[in-house]
Every structure is written in C-alpha cells, then in structure tokens.
C-alpha cells in the first residue's frame, strides 16, 4: 500500500461516468509517468464520450480519443495501491469496494465542467480549468519531476 507522500505503482481514477474528470486524470498521469505507474479510470455509471475532453487534452499534446467510458464493474483488474475519486458518488463506491482491501482511497473534490454554460469558449474554459487543476494536483501528489532532457 502506498502511504501519503509515496508514489504508488498502480492508480485508479474514478468519477461519476468516466467521461470527463477521471479520463483526463488518467491521461495526464500516463503522460507524466509513462511506464512508471499503471493507470486506469472508471465511473459509477456508464457515461458517453465527451468531445470537449478530447479538445482540451489535445491542446496540451495528449490524445484521449481512444478512451471508452467504463464502470467499476467493467474493470477486469484490481490490486491498485491508490484510488483517487473525483466525485462524491465515486468516493462512496470506492470505499464500499475496498472495505476488505489494503488500498488507499483519496477524495479530490473536482468540479464537473459539463454543467458549464455559455459560449463554446466559456465551456472549453471550464474544461481547461479542471484539466489544469488535475495536472497540478497529480504532479504534487505523485511527486513528479521533469526529466533531465526537459
């Protein structure tokens, strides 16, 4: 089990529908910790792909177009050191599923950008805000350092 401040080897990100917040977090973590941390994402309910996620992730050079939303029940693996939940319902489900396992569960309250209204640019800004907050939080929690090559 990874304790606070230690880097886990396997992380699961979870949110409501595995369509926005958890796939963003998983893509960021995969990008920053390629071949160092096993990463998956899941939702409480089955969601549908969100084109705004692909748009804001592409802005920072990350391709999420292959992501297909999954539920906790769809996951065919276990053994995560750390489950990071990004929505209250996901946190409750993660705690319920890990009652008998030695796995750390952390709740990171994260706004749902799908509730944003206004112009396309205003909606994209809400998604960018979530992306950037997740990036900062992941770098801090998982002790990311830039590679010497830049």
From TrEMBL:
Gene3D superfamilies: 3.40.50.2300
SUPFAM superfamilies the UniProt entry points to: Phosphotyrosine protein phosphatases I
Listed Pfam families: LMWPc
The entry's keywords: Arsenical resistance
Name of this protein: Putative arsenate reductase (ArsC-like)
Entry's Gene Ontology BP terms: response to arsenic-containing substance
Limits of the Phosphotyrosine protein phosphatase I domain: 9-144
């Amino acid at each position: 089990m990874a304790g606070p401040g230690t880097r886990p080897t396997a992380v699961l990100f979870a949110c409501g529908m595995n369509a926005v917040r958890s796939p963003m977090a998983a893509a960021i973590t995969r990008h920053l910790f390629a071949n160092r941390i096993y990463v998956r994402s899941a939702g409480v309910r089955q969601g549908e792909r969100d084109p705004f996620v692909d748009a804001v992730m592409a802005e920072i050079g990350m391709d999420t177009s292959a992501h297909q939303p999954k539920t906790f029940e769809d996951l065919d693996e276990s053994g995560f050191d750390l489950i990071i939940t990004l929505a209250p319902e996901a946190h409750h489900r993660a705690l319920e599923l890990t009652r008998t396992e030695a796995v750390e569960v952390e709740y990171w309250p994260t706004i749902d950008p799908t509730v944003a209204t206004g112009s396309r640019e205003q909606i994209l800004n809400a998604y960018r805000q979530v992306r950037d907050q997740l990036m900062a939080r992941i770098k801090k929690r998982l002790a990311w350092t830039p590679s010497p090559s830049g």
